[in-house]
Amino acid sequence: MVHTEQPPDLDEIDARDAAAIPPPWAYVENHAIIVAGLQIHGPGDISYTTAIASIDGAELADPESAPDDAQVAANIAFMVHSRQDVPDLLAHVRRLAGRIDQVRLLTDRAAAQDLPAVTLMTLRAVLDGAAVPIDLEEPAPTRWAYKQACAALEHHRQRADDAEEEVKRLRTELPSP
After folding, report:
1. What is the rounded CA–CA span in Å between residue 114 and residue 143?
2. Does pTM top 0.70 for this prediction?
3. DSSP state, 37?
4. Which candidate, 33, 70, 127, 153, has a CA 20 to 30 Å from the CA of 21?
5. Which stretches of the chain are assigned E, i.e. beta strand?
6. What pLDDT shows up at residue 136?
7. How many CB atoms lie within 10 A of CB 25?
8. Is the peptide bond before 7 cis (omega within 30 degrees of 0)?
9. C-alpha R_g of the chain
10. Contact (Cβ atoms closer than 8 angstroms) between residue 8 and residue 26
11. Residue-wise burial string across 146-168, b where 16 or more C-beta atoms lie within 10 A, e elsewhere
12. Is 122 exposed, middle or buried (0-12, 13-18, 19+ CB in 10 A)?
């Protein structure tokens, strides 16, 4: 397989995954096969629903190129685990792609409303998996936060004005020295 800069076609990978025999797969060492549906009934008494691959140690054209036992074991483990690893990786890639899409929507909305960039903390939260609601009809989080801060300042300004009025009133009630 040649690696390119193009992202993999997840639907094609999904189709190949769906067409393969479902997991779990297992390696039966004394038979040198990878199987699905393994059932162990007792010592040396096994059954399985499907033989997936045979690791039969057929003669190689160049015996010097034969992998050692550790390499064979690593290859077998890779093949057996790949049956579950592929669906897990597909799900993970899709989750990450969804987070990237959320970040794009947030930054596009900020640009469209001529707002400063969405806060880095909001973008980080999305990338970390936080569910940040994205409603294109609502103002961006930065505009909402600005309005909230203005309302809070107005509330405190009014309280300060009220306090000044109360101080003036109390001064007029105090006897002069």
Report:
1. 10
2. no
3. S
4. 70
5. 25-28, 33-36, 39-42, 45-47, 50-54
6. 44
7. 22
8. no
9. 33
10. no
11. eeeeeeeeeeeeeeeeeeeeeee
12. buried
Tens digit of each residue's pLDDT (9 = 90 or more) over 61-99: 445 555 667 777 777 888 888 888 889 999 999 988 888
The CB density around residue 43, as the number of other CB atoms within 10 Å, is 6
CB-CB contact of 139 with 113 (8 Å): yes
> To which residue do tokens 């390696």 refer?
27
- 28 has which bridge partners? 33
Sheet with 25-28, edge to edge strand ranges: 25-28, 33-36, 50-54
CA distance 42 to 171: 97
Give the DSSP letter of residue 30. Answer: G
pLDDT for position 65: 52
Within 10 A of 64 (CB to CB), how many other CB atoms are there? 5
Distance between CA atoms of residues 24 and 21, nearest Å: 9
Give the Cα separation of 145 and 154 in Å (integer): 14
Q: What share of the chain is helix, strand, coil (3-state, %, to 5)?
A: 55, 10, 30
pLDDT along the chain (177 residues), means of 10: 69 86 83 84 86 66 59 79 88 87 76 61 67 53 68 84 84 74
Structure tokens at 161: 């004005």
